[in-house]
Amino acid sequence: MASLGRRIGDLFRSLQLTLVxxxxxxxxxxxxxxxxxxxxxxxxxxxxxxREDLELVARAVSGPLSNALVEKDELVxxxxxxxxxxxxxxSGASVFDEEGNRVASLGVADSDVTNSVSAERVIASGELGxxxxxVDGESxxxxxxxxxxxxxxxxxxxxxTRQRSDFHDLVASSxxxxxxxxxxxxxxxxxxxxxxxxxxxxxxxxxxxENMDKLAPGRWLLATPAAGPxxxxxxxRGIRDMGRRMGDAEAEIEDRIARERAxxxxxxxxxKVAMIGRVAGGVAHExxxxxxVIQGRARILARAGLPDDQQRHLKDIEHQVxxxxxxxxxxLDCFRxxxxxxxxxxxxxxxxxxxxxxxxxxxxxxxxxETDGFDQPMPTRAEPLRAGLACLNxxxxxxxxxxxxxxxxxxxxxxxxxxxxxDDGPGIAPEDRxxxxxxFYSTRPAGEGTGLGLAxxxxxxxxxxxxxxxxxxxxxxxxxxxYFPRETGL
Length: 490
Fold this sequence. Notes:
alpha+beta; 5-stranded antiparallel sheet
């Protein structure tokens, strides 16, 4: 996800450069070319205007100059040339004979046009012509006009010049104005594109990228709402939907892993229980018959009228046989697995029966038994005998630890029924709370407990999909809670 965010970020971070290169630069190039073409058209128009002006001036005086040239009247030639300066903005004027030799001139003019291509072309064709050229070190536009006599023969040439500086100043000024306008336009367009991109797109993309960088397992939802242009909002919605799907997929994977782990643990537990159950069943079968024989012989001897000291030994034998029988029975209870026998039932009925049995148990005779919450329906799915055995073992264990009080209460806890058994005894140390459910582990002195009672409780609760917890009690001792799953359809 982070790499996807970086790729999208790189794409949008280069968007400004892309806009400048793909839109702004071509626009500026096209505008520059347009300005260049426009200035060329202006320059061409000015050249044509300059040529037309000089042509009009030359036509106005070509008649008198032709006559004066034929008559070789220098006075008329001079006056005619002077009149040219009065007609328009002229830099110079000169008259050449048909051989190309200068006859008269005023201002900037060629002294000899014998080698001038423009002059030869005009003499040969009889048409007007002109071009930019350098005369006396100055750049001028030179206009040649043929001087035709009355007989139609070309008598000579009239050259009218105009300095190019005026034209150059105008064109140069136009170019500077064009460059200035184009530069201002370029800077304005670039600023508009960059700032406009940031305001309308860039800042929203940056915010989206910051939120995308925060996406991680367990945090797949974007923190901010969609903003910016429609396309960015669509991207935001797409990423948000993808994040939601990622979150759902992650939750599904975690749930599946948890279920598989629970199934694996349950399978491992069932395999262990089955193996130990087979061993325990074999041991119980092998020990049961000899113990019954020993107990039977002890009872026969007890009826034989032995002395008191012999009777005491027989009672010890019978007590130990009974203790071994109890251990074998608890061992079988601990590793007996009967999940298929569970059925819907009311847990309150089981608890009332268990409390009746506990009140008759000599281990609870020194305690005041307190109950609460048994009057409510407590639907669950359980095997009655196994569920009652777990509750009875916890109550007996509490009675053995209690000084004078034992309180048994029922509560609804989320999706479970909680059966609390609290005593006012010394309690259980925190470091021992996880080990008390291990088989054959006991906190009591040797000979006072088998260490299998709470192991039976743990086994039964696992069979029923519940659990058992140990905490401190408000009575000062231990609080042991059994959590049975609620049955909603009962």
